[in-house]
Design a protein that fits this description.
alpha+beta
């Protein structure tokens, strides 16, 4: 990955954290942990914890990104010694071209969405 792409990704993560905070949500950028990465952002809404995989890319890879988010949410739970991966919901937030942060796309599996939609 080029330095320019890393900068774009890092800025997107920062923009998301700032946006969440303006909405009164507790959001923290997560440290990179190499092979056992925990995702980009921990978003705590007070009732749910989301492990966010933030994407600022020209080409979509929804299935790959969802799998990455699920793996990283499991790592997040494991590093906190939770016995199950149900403590964090994996979600991908994709930057929408030429739009504000609030217009980003949120992607998750239907099964995960149903857990929080009920």
């Amino acid at each position: 990955m080029s330095t320019a792409n890393k900068r774009k990704g890092s800025k997107w993560e920062t923009d998301l954290v700032q946006y969440f905070r303006t909405k009164g949500k507790k959001a923290t950028r997560l440290a990179r942990t190499g092979r056992n990465d925990e995702g980009d952002i921990e978003l705590d809404t007070g009732t749910e914890v989301y492990v966010v995989e933030a994407k600022n890319a020209q080409r979509l890879d929804l299935s790959g990104w969802i799998q990455e988010a699920k793996t990283e949410a499991a790592n997040w739970c494991k590093h906190r010694e939770y016995g199950t991966t149900d403590w964090a919901t994996p979600v991908v937030i994709v930057k929408r071209r030429n739009s504000s942060t609030s217009k980003a796309y949120v992607v998750m599996e239907l099964e995960d969405w149903l857990k929080i939609a009920s």
